[in-house]
């Protein structure tokens, strides 16, 4: 085999150059991340319907979705949690199932159930988790006017959630933007104690009136020939006027809420507060799309932030907890270790082999082998991460060891008087079998890691 390749130098060189060129092209298309892209076998369906009680949400929405989602293939466990205004349905699958196929099937089941859900319900969000769902960085949004009051910050919260967040999620490199630190409004009722005492009303009467006027009786399906109608009976309090116009019966009189109480809007009790450089801020955790490159996301976000700063001068935009710096440092540290190890090996070979050509051949083969390896990374769908680069370092070490053995053996046959072609063929064939056996023995140590079950095995697959 070796003599066959040596006798056809043009074909070997052309094949070598083709692989090298394809490796260079593939290296620019490989996604870069801190950890391998591992799909967690779990899908979450998030339902949002403000001003609806947990019980009504469970009966009218969650139960319908759960009934449809139980038909998803490969489902291991399903759990649901309903709260006032929102609900979560968690679907767990056995590891090894095609989570992308399950994600598509869940979308189909949700779309199929929409006809049986209330007409004003927004389509539930379907979230697929991955090991790379780590925020790349935090985008902090603040008001330039440090003396602005709570009302301005509430407006900033609404604007960030309805405009800024949606524009960022439109970028193809962004998987999700999770917002925290915002403030919402709530309706408050402040009773006039003197009027209430004179009318013989208590706080319980006001609470009962609000509860009675803010209910959802339910929905029914009405079939008219080949048409099917979903009728919903509800009485929701959606704005201030609805609350002010609530009727309350006291004795023989009927009065309205606005006659005995002040109804208005105020700041909702915040669940958490976020500060940046001493200023109250809203933060967006930017999560990268698994197939996108970190550098591409960074450049697109920089362009979008320049647009934001020009369009909204009353706001400040600041990047914090930038994980790209950690990623660049980790990846660069591995590359430096790889290159430094190759350089030290080259220097040692230069002194111990006492020959300038042999170390040059091995030194040239190291970067070439790396580039061609990146081509196979691209073909099998691997990304550049700390696990795969650690495997590359191990492979380069074994390649240098075997190269030294082969070159030394070829040199001995040349010293015995054989021609270069004959020495290369005989010297390589003589040691190729034990060298392959040595490589396989080294790889055998890591093979059990591939057969680990669950996420642990998938994590070490890249190595």
Which characteristics define this entry?
463 residues, alpha+beta, Multidrug efflux transporter AcrB transmembrane fold, Alpha-Beta Plaits, 5-stranded antiparallel beta sheet, 4-stranded antiparallel beta sheet, 16 helices, 15 strands, 52% helix
Walkthrough of the structure:
This protein has 463 residues and is an alpha+beta fold. The chain has 4 domains: 2-30 and 326-461, Multidrug efflux transporter AcrB transmembrane fold; 39-130, Alpha-Beta Plaits, CATH 3.30.70; 131-184 and 268-321, Alpha-Beta Plaits (2-Layer Sandwich); 190-266, Multidrug efflux transporter AcrB TolC docking domain, DN and DC subdomains (2-Layer Sandwich). 52% of the residues lie in helices and 24% in strands. The protein has helices spanning 2-6, 9-27, 54-69, 99-113, 150-169, 193-199, 203-212, 240-244, 257-260, 294-311, 323-352, 357-380, 386-415, 420-444, 447-450, 454-461; strands at 39-48, 75-83, 86-93, 125-130, 135-143, 174-180, 185-191, 215-224, 227-235, 247-250, 253-256, 261-267, 274-276, 279-288, 315-320. The strands form 5 sheets. Strands 5, 6, 13, 14 and 15 form a 5-stranded antiparallel sheet that branches. The chain has a 4-stranded antiparallel sheet with strand order 2-3-1-4, with helices on one face. Helix 2 (9-27) packs across helix 12 (357-380). The longest helix is centred in the last third of the chain and has 30 residues, at 323-352. The two termini are 30 Å apart. 19% of the residues are buried. The mean pLDDT is 79.
């Amino acid at each position: 085999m070796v003599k066959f390749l040596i006798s056809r130098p043009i074909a070997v060189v052309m094949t070598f150059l083709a692989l090298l060129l394809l490796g260079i092209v593939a290296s620019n298309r490989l996604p870069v991340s801190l950890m391998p892209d591992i799909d967690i076998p779990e899908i979450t369906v998030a339902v949002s319907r403000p001003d609806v009680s947990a019980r009504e949400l469970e009966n009218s929405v969650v139960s319908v979705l759960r009934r449809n989602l139980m038909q998803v293939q490969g489902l291991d466990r399903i759990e649901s949690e309903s709260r006032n205004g929102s609900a979560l349905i968690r679907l767990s699958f056995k590891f090894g199932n095609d989570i992308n196929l399950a994600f598509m099937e869940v979308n189909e089941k949700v779309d199929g159930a929409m006809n049986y859900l209330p007409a004003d319900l927004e389509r539930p969000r379907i979230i697929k988790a991955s090991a790379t769902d780590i925020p790349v960085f935090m985008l902090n949004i603040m008001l330039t006017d440090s003396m602005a009051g709570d009302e301005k910050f509430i407006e900033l919260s609404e604007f960030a959630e309805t405009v800024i967040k949606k524009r960022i999620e439109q970028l193809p490199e962004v998987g999700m933007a999770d917002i925290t630190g915002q403030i919402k409004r709530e309706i408050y009722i402040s009773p006039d104690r003197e009027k209430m005492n004179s009318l013989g009303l208590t706080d319980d009467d006001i609470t009962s009136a609000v509860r009675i006027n803010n209910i959802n009786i339910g929905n029914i399906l009405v079939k008219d020939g080949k048409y099917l109608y979903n009728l919903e009976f509800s009485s929701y309090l959606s704005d201030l006027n609805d609350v002010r116009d609530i009727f309350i019966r006291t004795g023989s009189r009927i009065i309205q809420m606005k006659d005995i109480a002040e109804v208005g809007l105020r700041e909702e009790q915040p669940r958490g507060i976020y500060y940046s450089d001493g200023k109250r801020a809203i933060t967006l955790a930017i999560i990268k799309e698994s197939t996108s490159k970190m550098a591409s996301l960074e450049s697109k976000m920089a362009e979008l932030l320049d647009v934001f700063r020009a369009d909204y001068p009353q706001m400040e935009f600041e990047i914090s907890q930038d994980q790209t710096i950690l990623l660049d440092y980790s990846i660069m540290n591995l590359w430096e270790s790889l290159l430094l190890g190759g350089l030290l090996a080259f220097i040692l070979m230069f002194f111990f082999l006492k020959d300038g050509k042999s170390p040059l051949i091995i030194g040239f083969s190291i970067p070439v082998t790396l580039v061609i390896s990146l081509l196979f990374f691209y073909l099998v769908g691997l990304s550049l991460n700390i696990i795969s680069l650690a495997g590359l370092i191990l492979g380069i070490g074994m390649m240098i060891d075997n190269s030294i053995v082969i070159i030394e053996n070829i040199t001995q046959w040349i010293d015995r008087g054989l021609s270069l072609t004959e020495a290369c063929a005989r010297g390589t064939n003589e040691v190729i079998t034990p060298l392959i056996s040595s490589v396989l023995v080294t790889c055998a140590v890591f093979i059990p890691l591939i057969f680990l079950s669950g996420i642990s095995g998938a994590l070490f697959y890249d190595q």
